[in-house]
Amino acid sequence: CRSILVSIRAKLDMFLEKTFGEKTAHPPPAMALSESMWVFVGTSISLTLVAFLSHALTVWRVDTEDFAFPVGPLGALATLQYGLTSAPASQPKNAIYGTLVCGVTSLCFTYIGLPTWLCMSLATSTAIALMAKLGVTHPPGGALAVLYASGIYHWGTLCYNMVAVVIAVAVSVVVNNLNEKRQYPQYW
User: Fold this and answer.
1) Strand, helix or coil for residue 66
2) pTM for the whole thing?
3) How far from 77 is each of 20, 111, 123, 180, 183, CA to CA, in Å?
4) Angle formed at CA 146 by CA 143 and CA 147, multiple of 5 degrees
5) What tens digit of pLDDT does each residue of 11-70 get?
6) Residue of 132, 111, 135, 137 whose CA lies nearest to 123
């Protein structure tokens, strides 16, 4: 019995130590103003193109505005592509395949007939686990999974979304590589 208590105490101590973070790790430094302006220019170009594309295709309506696909996850993609250019989650492979895995998984879950709240949870959890297993983890894909599992989107929406991701990747490759201090992508 004593050895069990010692083991539990050791695990609890380890858990508590880990919750305070890595002692040698530090947050990244703030970007220089010139770099943050580059982030602004890149995200503005990318998001203007994909938002216009979504608006021009007019598949669904929000208040008085029409859209073809949700643009929110593309804002998260732009954050990665211009703010964290070397992060694995921002690379084209992760952006394209992560979006595809999450969209397909979530749309498939909508056919099961679960309550929406449960579908959103299970589809997103499954999509994130699949991305991790396949090595294409992409946080905007997780956001997309929640949206698509709501049941208001369809396969055509996913096709439009995939085109938008490819456009965002192409723009990011061009804009980031025009800056001598940046390189995107790190790998394909």
Assistant:
1) strand
2) 0.83
3) 29, 27, 20, 22, 16
4) 90
5) 998 888 888 888 788 887 888 998 999 999 999 999 999 888 887 876 655 555 566 777
6) 111
